[in-house]
Amino acid sequence: MAGPATPRAERSGPSSRTVLRLIGGLLALTPVLAACSGFSDAASEAGAGYVSGDGVVVEIPPEGRAAPLEIRGATYDGDDFNSTTLRGAPVVLDVWYASCPLCRVEAPALQAVHAEYGAQGVEFVGVNTRDKAGPAAAFEETFDITYPSIPDSDGIVISSMDSSISPNAVPTTLILDAEGRVAARITGAAEQSTLESLLETVLAEGA
Hints:
The chain is an alpha+beta fold. Helices cover 36% and strands 19% of the residues.
């Protein structure tokens, strides 16, 4: 007569097959998460720039800057905007939309820097990728934004920027130098101290 069966050793964790399935599922999700958040753009830039508290910052020295951008559009107020008419002074261009959480985080910093540096001739303009006039105006009233924005739900303004901004990477802030060339880019929420430092560098170039 056979003796009692020897009990199997209890397993202390998931099997290797289960672990492999979990890893495969995470890898499958990675492109989806990157497309929704713009993470792939930020991660690829991290090696070329530095990470501030909220975003990835890339500075481009004068000798490495591409051709000047020509950004045209009409603001929510119906005024024509043409970046070529602003040559001779830096321009801060911020891409945003009202329900974007990081856009709400950075809004006070952008307005504070606008209040400080607008008096020095620095121009500010927003490019809104989604909103009609009502939601955009409500956002601007909430955060006391006093610089204009251009609606761009059809993506025409973004496409004119020669791939300087990924459509998925919102918010993104560009600083154009006095010639209209991209001198710096923040992918993610812009911090006040970071913006001020980048602007001081660009302003010093014309001193």
